[in-house]
Amino acid sequence: MGGARRLLVLLPLAALLLLATAAGATAGVTSGYRRKPEATADMPLDADVFRLPHGYNAPQQVHITLGDQTGTAMTVSWVTASEPGSNTVAYGRSPKKMEMSAQGTQTRYDYYNYTSGFIHHCTLTGLKHGVKYWYAMGFGHTVRTFSFTTPPKPGPDVPFKFGLIGDLGQTFDSNSTLSHYDANGGSAVLFVGDLSYADAYPLHDNNRWDSWARFVERSVAYQPWLWTAGNHELDYAPEIGEATPFKPFTHRYPTPFRASGSTEPLWYSVKIASAHVVVLSSYSAYGQYTPQWTWLDAELRRVDRKVTPWLVVLMHSPWYNSNGYHYMEGESMRVQFERWLVDAKVDLVLAGHVHSYERSHRFSNVAYDIINGKATPVRNLDAPMYINIGDGGNIEGIANNFTKPQPRYSAFREASFGHATLEIKNRTHAYYEWHRNHDGAKVVADSVWLINRYWMPTHDDSN
């Protein structure tokens, strides 16, 4: 009889535990981690990460990005400070025998009281997929040599590892982010906007574009970074006579927009390994029948999930954000495009802008119209997983104003700096990790297996 009484007591307790477990399976986590209390501060301009290369008129600020949609071309960019110098890039499969060459172009621009150096862009063509190449420029003065490996040929089961970085800046935390990413070994970076933060300095000090580009050269000269324009790329300042948006950014950072049928460099797509990556511009017109709207409508129809099963979208201003900073700034773009992304079964949407980290469950808010009042996001296995990765380390600091309670669509959030990686394994599985800076390069604060929406659409991977 005593045993029976104990059983009666235990059964309700077990039931409560089961209910708690079931509820916890979908409950969001607001991390209790608190970063160290030191201030976010810019590295001094005499820091070694900003140093000029040795030699007269030596190429500096070297960086590469895809020169076509799949990586059989690579665009090399660099700056010479004293005179234009040569536009030629030599390249080949051996550093001792670079038998191919390409001729580039040179430009420069003025911004208020600043005149840029001589900015060179040169596209190397005829490349083979998955091959290491060496390249050199600076002929006639000081020659510098670098290398890169082209992406593998697109295919449904081709593995690839991306780095995911946003809102980087040039602080000590920025340096930690870049160092940690380099140690984690990605092969290309999906960058979600806000590069140098030059506009945060008096008169939009464009010398900070130069220092930032020298800082990141150790990565961007050796692997392609795919650029998304953020609000700090606008550099729109009519009060000082600068009324051309994106002037420094578009002069310095080319994109392969024409290869995907885009009419503007701020929105475009690429195909890397088993991923089709779509880049959108949060700060360009996207209303019905605008060029960006028209292009995205056609681009989503062109995606072939049998060749590139992973569909990833980049933008700067997040559609789902439970931080008080920049709250709902992406709402009009979400209203315009969310239905398209859900119908296309997009796997992942990456954004920045909010200087913290947040990952969502698979939710959508496409049912609402002005009559039915269904304004609450709901579970939707066709919806993307949203990740806000605007935590690169910029001068503006951490966004630590999370709303309470945590909304149901939010899976994990933390007010820290860091970076992430996305390692695609095959057509059905990819492994995602987020690393916070202060735990070192190899300690993961958040991770999840992503299950492809096209090949396994009924599997809920967002828990």
Descriptive account of the structure:
The protein has 463 residues and is of the alpha+beta class. It is 17% helix and 26% strand. The protein has helices at 2-24, 172-184, 207-220, 247-252, 291-302, 331-343, and strands at 29-30, 60-66, 74-80, 88-92, 100-103, 105-107, 110-111, 114-115, 118-124, 132-137, 144-149, 160-165, 188-191, 225-227, 268-272, 275-279, 310-314, 348-351, 357-360, 363-364, 378-379, 385-389, 410-414, 418-424, 429-436, 446-451. The strands form six sheets. Strands 1-23-19-22-18-17-16-15 form an eight-stranded mixed beta sheet, with no helix packed on it. It has a six-stranded mixed beta sheet with strand order 14-13-12-24-25-26, covered by helices on one side. Strand 17 (310-314), helix 6 (331-343) and strand 18 form a beta-alpha-beta unit. The longest helix is centred in the N-terminal third of the chain and has 23 residues, at 2-24. The protein starts with a helix and ends in a 12-residue tail after the last strand. It comes from Lolium multiflorum. Residues 383-443 form the Purple acid phosphatase C-terminal domain. It is an enzyme of class 3 (hydrolase).
